[in-house]
Amino acid sequence: MNEIYSSIANENDLLYWLTKRAWTGEVFPKVSSIPLGHKINPDIDLLHINKYACPPELTGYEVKVLRKNDPLGPFYTAIGEALCYLRFGLDWAYVVIGCHKVPPGQVDRVEATLKETWAFLTDWLGQDLASRIREEAERSLEDDISCGSN
C-alpha cells in the first residue's frame, strides 16, 4: 500500500493531504464563514477558488473517511453537506471519500451501494444532468490521476 494512503486515518489527515495537491488558484480548509463574517453551516471542508477561470469558479469538497463500524453513515452525511454547499453560491460540490481499516469485503459492499445510489440519482435527476455530473467527476478524477505524483 502506498505510504501516503496508509497514513490517512481520519478526515483531518485526508484534508491535509488534499491541501498539499497541485491546485489552480487557492484552497482554504475548514471554511466556517463567508465574506462579511456570515457563519455557514455546514462548514466547507475544503474551498477551492479558481480565480483563473472566467468567471472564477468556487468548488467545495466535503471530506469523509469511512470506517468498518459505520461504512455508509459518513457517505450519506457527506452527500447532504455537499448539496448544502451550493446554497452558499459555490459552482461545484464534491464528496471525497477515504477508507480506514475497512475490510476488503466491506469495501466491495460500499462500492456497490455507491453505484446503486448513483443509479438512483441518475433516475431522480434525469439522465442528462446526471451524465454531466458524472462526466465532470470523471474528468476531475483523470486530472487527479495524471497529477497524482505531486
What does this structure look like?
With 150 residues, this protein is α+β, with helices and mostly antiparallel strands. It has one domain (3-146). 45% of the residues lie in helices and 28% in strands. It has five helices and four strands. It has helices at residues 3-6, 11-19, 73-85, 104-125, 127-146, and strands at 26-34, 38-50, 57-67, 92-100. Strands 1-2-3-4 form a four-stranded mixed sheet, with helices on both faces. α4 crosses α5 (127-146). The radius of gyration is 16 Å and the shape is globular. Mean pLDDT is 78; it is low at 144-150.
Top keywords for this entry?
150 residues; four-stranded mixed sheet; 5 helices; 45% helix; 28% strand; disordered C terminus
Number of helices: 5
Order of helices and strands: HHEEEHEHH
Strand content: 25-35%
Strand arrangement within the widest β-sheet reads 1-2-3-4
Q: Domains counted in the coordinates: how many?
A: 1
Q: What is the CA–CA distance across the termini?
A: 17 Å
Describe the largest sheet: 4 strands, mixed
Structural class by SSE content = alpha+beta
